[in-house]
Amino acid sequence: QVQLVESGGGLVQAGGSLRLSCAASGSILSMNLMGWYRQAPGKQRELVAAMTTGGTTNYADSVKGRFTISRDNGKNTVYLQMNSLKPEDTAVYYCNARRISWANPGDYWGQGTQVTVSS
User: Fold this and answer.
1) Which terminus of the chain faces fewer neighbouring Cβ atoms within 10 Å, N or C?
2) In whole angstroms, what is the distance from residue 101 CA to residue 20 CA?
3) pLDDT (tens digit, 9 = 90+) per residue, 42-82?
4) DSSP state letter for 41
C-alpha cells in the first residue's frame, strides 16, 4: 500500500505561480506512472500532467507551456510547477500513482489540495 500526501495548494492571483508536492510513503520507482489530476466544482476529474518511470511526460492541452511535472526519486516526491495561473485552473488537485502489474497492480490517490486562482 502506498500513501500519497499532497501539499502546496493555496490562493494565488492570476498570473502567479504555485508548486504542488506529492510525497509517497513508498518508493515511486515501483510505479509505472505518476500523475496530477484536478477536479473543479461540477466537472469531472481530468488529467493535468503525467510522467512515466522513464521520464516521458504528457500534459493536458490547457496547461502545456505553463505547468511542469517532475519527480525526485530519492525523496519519493512528485512535483507540479504551475506558472501563469488562470482562474480556470481553480480546482482540487490530486496526485495519482499507478503500477501496471498482473501480479501486483496498484492505483493510489492522495486526498487532494485546493488551488484557487483569483482574477
Assistant:
1) N
2) 28
3) 999 999 999 999 999 999 999 999 999 999 989 999 999 99
4) T
Residue with cell 501480479: 103
Angstrom distances, CA of residue 45 to CA of 10, 30, 40, 41, 48: 19, 24, 7, 10, 9
The pairing of strands 91-99 and 113-118 is antiparallel
What does the pLDDT read at residue 28?
A: 82
Q: Is 82 helix (H, G, I), strand (E, B) or coil?
A: strand
**11-45 pLDDT tens trace:** 999 999 999 999 999 788 888 999 999 999 999 99
pLDDT of 99 over the 90 cut: yes
Residue labelled with grid coordinates 483569483 = 118
Gap between the Cα atoms of 16 and 95, Å rounded: 21
Distance in angstroms (rounded) separating the CA atoms of residues 83 and 107: 28
Residues 6+ apart with CB under 8 A from 116: 10, 11, 12, 90
Which is nearest to 10 in space by CA: 21, 26, 1?
Answer: 21
